[in-house]
């Protein structure tokens, strides 16, 4: 089987010749240059031949064209931090301009993807990373976003409308650039942050507007539930074939989730502690356990979130070899 056949089979729950596997990581500092980001993406995929390519722009690309400033400060997962937010007062949400996503930082991400997709020639699914509108809003305003959500909901919703329109426009350009679908990440669908009722209004409503814009137009999509205590069941009905969360760090387990989602679960590998600092034997054991939990069906072996940039090659190789030796 080739990569596409494995991914499509695992989503459908049919047998594969071997367990599909994919890992993804940031390329800090270099991810600010479209040419370097494309080159790293190609080199990483050619080195390991993953069954799926999760494109890796920085996690802050969606706010910089609106005026926020960010920097890489050495995080072990390669993520950038927001140094200066763009929004401060509730009335600022109404003043958000609608961006031209073909330009600036937004445009650079799809330029990088286009360069990588051209070389990969459709050999494996490539997913552009998209952040939920509420996630982008929180990065734009920081923690006051939650205060605005509860005390000035109409103002925040005005901002979410603009952010959603821009996110959809970015998705349109991503498909033109060669993406086969989206890695849709939400960082607020957690009961540690919001109540389910709050997420229904300020998160899910806008998430589903994004997916509705691309109904029937993507081949593979993955939902990523970031953080502890995710609202798994509330979002399990999203129109995606793959779902990913920190399964080694928070509930549900892969086994528990498998019966609550119609597609395939993605995970099994603890992306920072074990993958970076664990032994090869420990990494292999974790992959075997993931396969045992699911019976090897509807499972894409992968990290719970972005892999640590210091993950040693022997541990990456261990994940791939252990997954691939199991039909």
Architecture, CATH level 2? Alpha-Beta Barrel
Task: Determine the mean pLDDT.
Answer: 97
Largest sheet entry: 7 strands, parallel
| CATH topology group | TIM Barrel
Residue windows where pLDDT falls under 50 for at least 5 positions: none
Number of helices: 13
Strands ordered across the widest β-sheet: 1-4-5-6-7-8-9
The SSE string, one letter per element, is HHEHEEHEHHHEHEHEHEHHEH
Beta-strand residue percentage: 5-15%
- The termini sit apart by 11 Å
The computed structural class is alpha/beta
Tally of strands: 9
Rg to the nearest angstrom?
Answer: 19 Å
* Shape field: globular
- In the CATH hierarchy, what is the class? Alpha Beta
Number of domains: 1
Q: Which range best describes the helical content: under 10%, 10-25%, 25-40%, 40-55%, 55-70% or over 70%?
A: 40-55%
Structure write-up:
By secondary structure, the protein is an alpha/beta fold. It has a single domain, classed as TIM Barrel (Alpha-Beta Barrel). Helix content is 45%, strand content 13%. The chain contains 13 helices and nine strands. It has helices at 3-12, 34-48, 61-64, 104-120, 133-141, 144-151, 153-177, 196-213, 232-235, 254-258, 273-277, 280-294, 313-324, and strands at 53-54, 69-72, 80-84, 126-131, 181-186, 222-225, 242-245, 264-269, 299-303. Strands 1-4-5-6-7-8-9 form a seven-stranded parallel beta sheet. The protein has a two-stranded antiparallel sheet with strand order 2-3. Helix 2 packs parallel to helix 4, helix 6 (144-151) packs across helix 7 (153-177) and helix 7 (153-177) runs parallel beside helix 8. It is globular. 50% of the residues are buried.
